[in-house]
Predict the structure.
Amino acid sequence: MKSFAFLALSCVVLGAGILSQAQAGVPQEAKSYKNDVAPILKNYCVGCHTGNSAKAGLDLSTYKGLTAKREKATIVAGKAEKSALIQAVKGSGEVKKMPPGRRTVKAAEIEVLSAWINEGAKDN
Ligand code: HEC
């Protein structure tokens, strides 16, 4: 009985170890516009933010649109918290929460967007 308890405990400890290692590895991986950022924006934002009728004149379907000059910068390279994009998905700052309504960008996805901006918001 005792050895079973030990075995069970070992499994938990080992499992947690592997899990935390995997999580610790995530922020170290450089984020890519094409592979990481664009799919998130496509999923949540591009429906309203593309083409000639883009809401707020903001085109989030391309890197060019995302980084175009605006009164309130969508992206401030290196400064996620100052970027309207991050304020919008968090519903913080003076920017309206995006997307409007019940959908909310997942915390893990906001992490990805923030990491990419803090890594310099490269067209990678
Ligand atoms: C259902 C349509 C819709 C979706 C989806 C949507 N937006 Fe918007 N967005 C709007 C509208 C409408 C405005 C203009 C709001 C206003 O000025 O009152 C806007 C404005 C903005 C602005 C400008 C805010 C400002 O104060 O300058 C940003 C940044 C923005 N959206 C980012 C996003 C992001 C990022 C997503 C995806 C996570 C997204 N939007 C998804 C409709 C949408």
User: Anything to note?
Assistant: Helices lie at 2-25, 33-44, 63-66, 84-90, 107-118. Residues 31-118 form one domain.
